[in-house]
Amino acid sequence: MTSQRVYSDEEWGLLVGLPQSVMMAAIFAESDSANRTASESGAGLDAIAAGRDSGSTLVRDVALELVGQLGDPETGELPPVLDVGSREIDPGEVLGRARSASDLLAAKAGPGEAAAYRHWLVGIADQVVNAAKSGGFLGIGGSWVSESERRFVDELSTVLND
Fold it and tell me: CA 32 → CA 27, 126, 148, distances in Å?
């Protein structure tokens, strides 16, 4: 059984902050319209909130804390407004933090807890990039997952499973 008390405040902050950072990096992996970005944001918040139903105590604890900070999409609480124009997301920095979290979990969590957390992070990114089509014109053409979005999800998966 893993919980917050196993981790220092700094370590816990890394584990709690990373899902939202992964969501944001996945959202901004491809420049999209405000509507598409809103769809991706909603999908990311739903994926984070779904962690509350995880069989992993760690994922549940992190998800509960995050939902407390971000708002619960199931109760109709308004999600935070994303200011697309001013958000600078460095995917490399997010991937570096993911590697640090993976190393931390290898040292302090059981293999099941670590695997569940890693799987949840990749699931968040995957749900975001599959939430809205990228490219195209007036809803015609485009693809569900752009090359840059797929690359981010693949790199995240690789970093977490090394």
Answer: 9, 16, 12
Residue 141: Cβ within 10 Å count? 9
pTM: 0.84
Residue pair 22/98 in contact (Cβ under 8 Å)? The answer is yes
pLDDT, tens digit, 9 for 90 and up, residues 83-141: 544 456 889 999 999 999 999 999 999 999 999 999 999 999 999 999 875 555 545 55
Helix 111-129 × helix 34-50 angle, to 10°: 160
Are 67 and 54 in contact by the 8 Å Cβ rule? The answer is no
Strand partners, 143: 134
Residue 141 backbone zone (phi > 0: left; psi -120 to 50: alpha; other: beta): left
Q: What are φ and ψ of residue 137, in 5° steps?
A: -140, 125
* CB neighbours of residue 65 within 10 Å: 14
- Mind listing the pLDDT tens digit for each residue in 34-50? 777 788 888 999 999 99
